Amino acid sequence: PDERSLLELGLQFVPRTLPLPSHNWCDPITRFLRNVMVYGFFGGASRPPHQFQRMFSVSHWTPDPTLVPPAFRAFCTDIRCALSSLRLPASPPNLPQNLLSALDGLAARDVVVCAADKGSTTVCLATRTYLRLCHQHLADQFTYEV
C-alpha cells in the first residue's frame, strides 16, 4: 500500500531533503565583517548621521588587513572561525517515514519505474520485462529503420 501511494505521486515528484541555503546567513555576516574592518581602518571615527551623504554607487573596497588594528583583525578572525564550524540542520524530508521506507524498498528491487503508454499512470516493471518490451518496440520494422 505504501509503494502504491509513493507511485501515485508521479514521476515529477522528487523525494529529497532540502538543504538550507547558506547565502541567507553568510552574506550579511560577510558584510558585517567588512564593515568592522572599515570601521577599524578609519579608527572608529563617529560623526553625526546628518553629516553623511548617501552614496549612489556601492563600494566593495576592503582595507588592507595589515593596516587595521590587531584587535579588530582578531575579532574578525574569531567570528570567521566560529562560523566555519557552524553546522546547520537540514530541513525535514518532504515524505513521511512510511513512504521513505517504501522508496528504500523499491530501490532495493530490480525494477524500473516509468510512465505507462496510455493514461497518466506510473507503473513499476521488472527490469527484464522492461528491457524485453523496449527491444520488442524497437524491433518494429514499420516504425524504425536500421
Question: How would you describe this protein?
Answer:
With 146 residues, the protein is mainly α. Helix content is 45%, strand content 7%. The chain contains 5 helices and 2 strands, in the order ααααββα. The protein has helices at residues 2-8, 23-41, 70-84, 97-108, 127-138, and strands spanning 111-115, 122-126. Strands 1-2 form a two-stranded antiparallel sheet. The two termini are 43 Å apart. 3% of the residues are buried. The model has no long low-confidence stretch (mean pLDDT 75).
What does this entry show, briefly?
The protein is mainly α. The protein has 5 helices and 2 strands, in the order ααααββα. α1 (2-8) packs across α4 and α2 (23-41) packs antiparallel against α3 (70-84).
Roughly what fraction of the amino acids lie in strands? 5-15%
Question: How are the strands of the largest sheet arranged?
Answer: 1-2
| Fraction of residues in H or I helices | 40-55%
- Note the gap between the termini: 43 Å
| Silhouette | elongated
Question: Can you write the helix and strand succession as a string?
Answer: HHHHEEH
* Count of distinct strands: 2
Mean pLDDT, to the nearest integer, reads 75
Keyword list:
45% helix, 146 residues, 5 helices, mainly alpha, two-stranded antiparallel ribbon
Question: How would the blueprint of this fold be written?
Answer:
Blueprint: H1 2-8, H2 23-41, H3 70-84, H4 97-108, E1 111-115, E2 122-126, H5 127-138
Antiparallel strand pairs: 1-2
